[in-house]
Every structure is written in C-alpha cells, then in structure tokens.
Amino acid sequence: MGEETGGKYVEPGGEFTRDQRYIATRITADGRDGYPVEPGRYRLAVSRACPWANRLIIVRRLLGLEDAISMAVAGPTHDARSWTFDLDPDGRDPVLGIERIQEAYFKRFPGYERGITVPAIVDVPTGQVVTNDYAQMSLDLSTQWTAYHREGAPQLYPEHLRAQIDEVNDVVFRDVNNGVYRCGFAGSQEAYDKAYHRLFDRLDWLTERLTDQRYLVGDTITEADVRLFTTLVRFDPVYHGHFKCNRQKLSEMPVLWAYARDLFQTPGFGDTIDFDHIKRHYYEVHRDINPTGIVPLGPDLSNWVTPHGREALGGRPFGDGTPPPPPAEPVDPAHTPLR
C-alpha cells in the first residue's frame, strides 16, 4: 500500500493519514477507460504480506479467475523504491520481465511520484500499470469479469445488498483496516490514544453485529467479509504487538475470533495466508517502529484450525454456489498453521 514503500512510516507529532490518490483507471466489460476485460491480458501484482493485496488474492480465487488473470507475487520485504520480485528465479517476474513493480508504474507514468503500491494490475502487452485502486479492483472482479467466473462462483457483491455492503465497508475501512495503521504509525500519544479507542470501539460494534449472524451482510460471504478478514488474520501476529493494538488479542475476543476462524477454514481464505511473509514484512520493513528488524517467533498459530462453532448460526458460505477447488498457486505449507 501507499505508506509501505520503504523509509519512514510514523507521522511525527500527529496522526497517520493514508494517501488515497490511486490510479483510477478501470478494467471494464465495455472497455470505457481503454482497458476491456480480456482473459490472459492482465497480470495482478501482489504480495502475500499485504492485507490490501490479500483481498484481491481471495476474491480472484473465490471467483475462479486464476486462468483469466495471472498473478505476480512479490516478496514480503522491499526497499524505499518498491516491492521486488525476489521470489522468482533471477529476481525477475517471468511474465512481465521486471525486477520491481516500480518499472510498470514508470512505464505508464515516467517519474510517478505517488506510492508504488500493491495490489496493482499490469497490462501485459505494454508492461504498463493499469490501476492500483485496490477497493475498486476487487469490486470490478465481481461485476465486470462475470463472463469468466467459474461455475458456482459466489455473489460477493450482489446488487440487492450493495448499499449495506458499501456502508459496512466504509466504517470497517476507516476504523479497522486503516485503524490499525492509525495506531501503529501515530506520532504522538494523543493521536495513538484516539486511534486506539476508535479501533476497539469499532471491534466492539462488530462483535455485537456478528454475535447472532454468521456473516457481516446477509447470510452468505460477501466483499465485506473479505475486507474485514484480511485485517483480523494479521491482528495477533502483527497488529497486537507491532502496532500496539493491545487491549486484547483477537483470540481473546470470542465472537470475532470464531468469525475469523470460520472464514480462515473456508476454502479461498486461509489457503491464501502466508504468516511468515506477513510477519517478515511488518517487522523487517518498519524500522522506525522496530529498529532491530527482529521478527518475533510467536504467537502459536495452530489455533486457527480449531473448531469455531459458527455453523450453528446458519448461513450458507457460498450461497447457491460452491467452494473453489484447491489453490492453483498454493502457499508454502511451512508458512501457515495448515499442517
């Protein structure tokens, strides 16, 4: 994401403010922005460490778009210039032929001065970045790429629930997804205190909402659940300690902990998670918060696969659809508790 491009992260003396000026170009069925939906044309650049990129990995997998949109996976750490493809042979993405995602940004916008972020979608024929507008990107996978969804793909953004989903997404983004960063990158005690209370007040609100219903909106998994999950799954390994979000661990909040485990154990969610990459990214990159770069060994993550009991609330994870098949691009099993 924008603030995670190497260098300094804490806002001295004040509140962290996220730069939300993203490349607004869209890939649509009608090609209105010059980039029509076309299988095989685009490559999704991600890091498994990044919660914002993790959303796109999950949605792409749930909808079965792996064959339509290929995926470039950057390593968990980066320098001040950008994310690098250091996991690939010779440190170069085999499709785009580049060492760092910055090259795709500069190819379309020479001297691009905003954040060189993931997720980003690249036009393979030209090697140019198309968009890094992560919120719109995942919605477009649901609404613009329908011709290439797998049989049994779930409705993650159904029309009759969009207003509710948008409302929940808005408050979850402000107070939870971005809220943990407002705690972690606060530059004053006052800014931290304010962010801390705002975060946990919203987590209490979510606890109430999820006490008697299995999912955030309706009785099936939607875009809203994807967006909350990628923050919750990072809470105990990273945000509780590294970002000082420490009123409680997620595992000490029974409703949210059961909800998160329910999703984690659902095909398409936990099988995208690489806890090793997640921990290495935050603890190694944010040196003004963690100067030594030491990555903690804990917490024990095997409890993610314990029974959650949320089936008793009813709900149908995929609605009239079906679970996705096993992942075509599996996470290193040594990096997750799925052993």
UniProtKB/TrEMBL annotation:
Gene3D superfamilies: 1.20.1050.10, Glutaredoxin (3.40.30.10)
Region (Disordered): 308-339
Keywords: Transferase
Name this protein carries in UniProt: Glutathione transferase
GO MF annotation list: glutathione transferase activity
EC identifiers of the protein: 2.5.1.18
GO terms for cellular component: cytoplasm
Swiss-Prot/TrEMBL site (Lowers pKa of active site Cys) positions: Y239, Y282
Catalytic residue positions: C50 (nucleophile), Y181 (proton donor/acceptor)
InterPro entries in alphabetical order: Glutathione-S-Trfase_C-like, Glutathione-S-Trfase_C_sf, Glutathione_S-Trfase, Glutathione_S-Trfase_N, GST_Omega-like_C, GST_Omega/GSH, Thioredoxin-like_sf
Domain GST C-terminal: 158-285
